[in-house]
């Protein structure tokens, strides 16, 4: 029997969605898009799976959505116009934080909502928007199964040494630990790698998810054993507007000597740092690459340096590397950045083929490279849809057995 699944990824200024038909445990994408610029200059966009814009429509005046609920209403309007006979059976939600306990997707009910609300202090700039999307979907689709899929779940296989900070142990027990993020992306990449190169996927893999949000993950035997992001989505690599790794003494100094409040620090670290802060030009790598200003060149140089440093650290965690995968907006498209990251890393067994890299082929390493280097386009939505279908089928099976 064919089912229809909607995926929702609600953020502070955008709501991304995808519509899937599911049959015989396989999900097939019907459409995807987003409502972006919520609260400012909202636009409705439809995209291909590869990210190309198919249609774009400004939303203004009384038609302009100002929150997740209004944005989801626009998605519903689009669905009714373009897929009038479709009945949504289940909705899968991307939820950034699942805390220390959730290592698998869960069916959302009132008790689950309360538990997820308890994680808001762990990721205050993401979790509230995810929950707002869930609330809007539960209201719009009261009879549909709602499923939460967590960005942190993939990393729950971390060994203790990569989970803990050198703080009093009671803080670890209270939830102050390294969670890791971008897990839905890493899960997709590993599934794709198992199809393309199963022997490499079973070995020592480093995945570099490089985009406006950026992180890296060390994976052994398909399990996450190290990640650059930690307690929050701030740690590790510099990002579009986020700082990445920083000496905590800097924060103490800014509070005590500069009188900065928690709110001011939050804005600084999340909104005014990273590539945007370093360059003073833009958070967008494409803009920086096109700029001739020295500030742009220095910001790129720092980004490349930090990725190379983290790559060495992940190789140390794994005891070597059999495969390196680039993904994310920068990882998938910026061949010059990939070249700079991999330059001089023959000691790690990494050697790029210039032509393959320039064409962004699926394998960009040379035939002599001991480490195979891949470029794989990530697809978090399909992972969410697949997990949601699994929960939907499980509920149907249990209902049949109970009957």
Descriptive overview:
- It is a single chain.
- The mean pLDDT is 93.
- The chain is α/β, with parallel strands linked by helices and 403 residues long.
- It has two domains: 3-150, ATPase, nucleotide binding domain (Nucleotidyltransferase, domain 5); 199-375, Nucleotidyltransferase, domain 5, CATH 3.30.420.
- The strands form two sheets. The protein has an eight-stranded mixed sheet with strand order 5-4-3-2-1-6-8-7.
- The chain contains 15 helices and 13 strands.
- The longest helix is centred in the C-terminal third of the chain and has 25 residues, at 294-318.
Structural topology:
Blueprint: E1 3-10, E2 14-23, E3 26-36, E4 43-47, E5 53-58, H1 68-82, E6 90-95, E7 106-107, H2 110-117, H3 127-140, E8 145-150, H4 169-173, H5 183-196, H6 198-201, E9 204-209, E10 215-220, E11 223-227, H7 248-256, H8 262-271, H9 274-279, H10 285-290, H11 294-318, E12 323-327, H12 328-333, H13 335-342, H14 354-358, E13 372-375, H15 380-402
Parallel strand pairs: 1-6, 6-8, 9-12, 12-13
Antiparallel strand pairs: 1-2, 2-3, 3-4, 4-5, 7-8, 9-10, 10-11
CATH superfamily of the largest domain: ATPase, nucleotide binding domain
| Number of helical stretches of at least 4 residues | 15
- CATH fold naming of the largest domain: Nucleotidyltransferase, domain 5
**SSE order:** EEEEEHEEHHEHHHEEEHHHHHEHHHEH
Query: Can you give the helix content as a percent range?
Result: 25-40%
Distance between the first and last residues' Cα = 19 Å
What is the approximate shape? globular
What is the count of distinct domains? Answer: 2
Name of the CATH first level of the largest domain: Alpha Beta
Poorly predicted segments: none
Q: Give the biggest sheet.
A: 8 strands, mixed
Radius of gyration in whole Å, from Cα?
A: 21 Å
- DSSP summary, beta strand count: 13
